[in-house]
Design a protein that fits this description.
The structure is a single chain. The chain is mainly β. The chain is 6% helix and 31% strand. It has one helix and ten strands, in the order βββββαβββββ. The mean pLDDT is 91.
Length: 108
């Protein structure tokens, strides 16, 4: 599993820069740079779904499973992230498209 540091503090799953979801998906099928990727698991804390989840207790995990669709990333091996650690960026995100994988490195 990969160590995750997440700056998307507006995400319902973000607990002290850790992820309480257990696994995430990084999209960016045609990405050649970090800005063309995103965490599709992001959910805005202010959404109705988040309000419904608000009563549930969450604990953030440092190590999680990452399903990666960024085929051109050096760390992508059979749609799984092999990086020892990654950063998901998006401190002001309102939707998943506002996030990105800060660790993305293009193979070419």
């Amino acid at each position: 599993m990969t160590v995750l540091n997440c700056s998307a503090t507006t995400c319902i799953y973000n607990e002290n820069s850790l992820c309480s979801r257990g696994e995430i998906e990084v999209r960016g099928d045609q990405a050649h740079r970090s800005a063309e990727t995103c965490c599709s698991s992001f959910r805005d804390r202010n959404s109705q779904a988040a309000k419904n989840m608000a009563e549930k207790k969450h604990c953030g995990c440092e190590r999680i499973q990452i399903d990666c669709k960024a085929q051109e990333c050096t760390y992508n091996e059979h749609c799984k992230c092999t990086a020892a650690a990654i950063d998901i960026d998006g401190p002001n995100a309102n939707k998943y498209e506002d996030t990105q994988c800060g660790t993305f490195v293009c193979k070419h």
